[in-house]
Each structure stands twice: as structure tokens, then as C-alpha cells.
Amino acid sequence: MERIKLHDKVFEVSIPSEKIQEAVRKVAEQISRDYNGDDCPVFLSVLNGSFMFTADLLKNIEFNSEISFTKLSSYEGTSTTGKVHELIGITKSLKDRIVIVVEDIIDTGTTLEKLVEIIGAQQPREVKIATFLFKPEAYKKDVKIDYIGMEIPNDFIVGYGLDYQELGRNYKDIYTLVSE
Ligand code: IMP
Ligand code: MG
Residue 143, exposed/middle/buried by CB under 10 A (0-12, 13-18, 19+)? Predict the structure, then answer.
């Protein structure tokens, strides 16, 4: 089993990149069934974690759409702080637009709830949520998640954009923390 060490912790591969790419294609197919170039949705990618999913997803979207980025953070180390910081605000006008939020992972839903509130203030036509990973056991909010790549157990993972204290984002596979 392939392992990596990030700071003081050891992680082992849990989702290989082939499985990841297959799930990404499925999300792109679902979105493509619901929207087309006439809708010209705005994909709003939430940095930093979702940069890889955003790139792979958008390579599989074959209709006219726009992309914008925002940056929020709520995590410190391996757990959520409950407080969400807006580090880069939304620079594009979302008024009357169809907005598809692109998230790497939805855990408790704290970040998502805050983001939906920020987007809502701009009076978009419609807001949809696409996340690559979803932890159903950790989710505490009521915001509907429209597109999910994979549901995963409530473990701490890294890779494919996700980090442990900023390390691990560059790996193409997903790794799970090995319990001490
Ligand atoms: P939430 O606000 O609790 O839903 O947390 C969402 C954010 O926390 C994600 O966008 C990630 O940045 C981070 N996060 C949640 N779970 C993990 C994980 O297992 N590994 C790395 N980061 C995570
Ligand atoms: Mg994130």
C-alpha cells in the first residue's frame, strides 16, 4: 500500500486516480444533462482545495460556461474551526446567473452554508452545488447538494487538492490518515 508522510502524519492511498477521474466524468455528465450553452452557467470554484476537481470537471464540460474563483477557509489542521473566513471575495457579478458552486469536499457544511448566503446576496437566478467528496455522517446543514462525485466515511483525507497543513494537495490519488 502506497504511503506518504505529511508533517507528523502518515497517509495511505484510499481512492486511486482512475476512480477519481471516473467519478469526475459522471458529475460532468449529470451537469451536462441539466444545462447547456444557452444557460451559460458560472462555475464558482472554492479555493484552495477544489483547484484539481475544478480543472478536471471543466475539461469534461463541453458547452459555453464561465469560471470564477473565491477563497474561503474554515479548517485548521485536521478539524473545522466552525468559523469561515472569506479570503478572496467573489469578483464576478452573479446577478441573474446560474451559479454552480464547485467544492472539493463538504464535511460539516459550515463553509457551504456561508457561501450560499454570500452568493444569495447577489440575486443569482439559480444556485447549484457540486462537490467532489461528501461526508454524509459529518454533514449538519440543510443546504441541498445537487451533484456528488463520491460519498466517503468521516475520515481525514488528503490529495487531489486537499491538504493537511498545506501539504498533500499535489497528489493525484486520495489518501486517508493512518490512525496511530
Ligand atoms: P466544512 O465547512 O466542515 O464542510 O468543511 C469544508 C472544508 O474543510 C473543505 O472545503 C476543506 O477545505 C476542509 N476539509 C474538510 N474535510 C477535509 C478532509 O478530510 N481533509 C482535508 N480538508 C478537509
Ligand atoms: Mg474547500
Answer: middle
